[in-house]
Design a protein that fits this description.
The protein is mainly alpha-helical. It has helices spanning 4-26, 30-34, 48-71, 97-116, 137-155, and strands at 126-129, 133-136. The chain has one domain: dinb family like domain (Four Helix Bundle (Hemerythrin (Met), subunit A), Up-down Bundle). A two-stranded antiparallel sheet has the order 1-2.
Length: 180
């Protein structure tokens, strides 16, 4: 069972990583935020705007997976999709950095309300997903700040410190974000 300290640390890390990401993109011009790295591979090929839109899409996906784990005993979440954000990945360049940042803030506020309404026992519930395997709700929620950290490194042109552990050992093609 998650302790109050576990939940406090989760929320603090979610805030710290998101704040660091937003501070980093705040320093980018619109042109810089629309420029994709030439030498990146996979998600590292995306422009900062695309990465921000992807983070919003994944915020809704992770949250939908957590909600399913809270509602059912050990479900598969392979076919569970979060709500489609107002600015999806394929329209990222139509938006300003400020609009993408606002979308991330709105989505995070929804996630934090979900966390605040959970009991300590609910953090131990689990769900399985083909890319990531079986994770507890706490592990799914920790994915948020790790995912932010990975994309912050990619936006900065650094090799990400964090790399998700995919079932099968390789990253699936996420070019379109989660399937709808």
């Amino acid at each position: 069972m998650a302790s109050q300290e576990d939940v406090r640390q989760l929320i603090e890390k979610m805030a710290a990583e998101r704040d660091a990401l937003l501070a980093q993109v705040d320093s980018l011009s619109e042109a810089e935020a629309a420029r994709a790295p030439l030498d990146g591979e996979g998600e590292a090929q995306w422009s900062p705007k695309q990465q921000l839109a992807h983070l919003a899409e994944m915020e809704t996906a992770y949250r939908a997976w957590v909600e399913k784990a809270l509602a059912e005993d050990d479900p598969s979440v392979d076919d569970v999709r979060g709500e489609r954000p107002a600015i999806p990945l394929e329209r990222a360049h139509e938006a300003t950095v400020a609009q993408l940042v606002e979308q991330l803030r709105e989505q995070r506020a929804v996630t934090l309300r979900l966390i605040e309404g959970m009991t300590p026992e609910q953090f131990d519930r689990a769900a399985s997903q083909r890319m990531f395997g079986r994770l507890t709700v706490l592990q799914w929620l920790r994915s948020y700040y790790r995912h932010d950290r990975m994309h912050r490194d990619q936006i900065a042109g650094r090799e990400p410190e964090y790399r998700p552990r995919f079932v099968g050992g390789h990253e699936p093609d996420q070019r379109r974000g989660p399937r709808r």
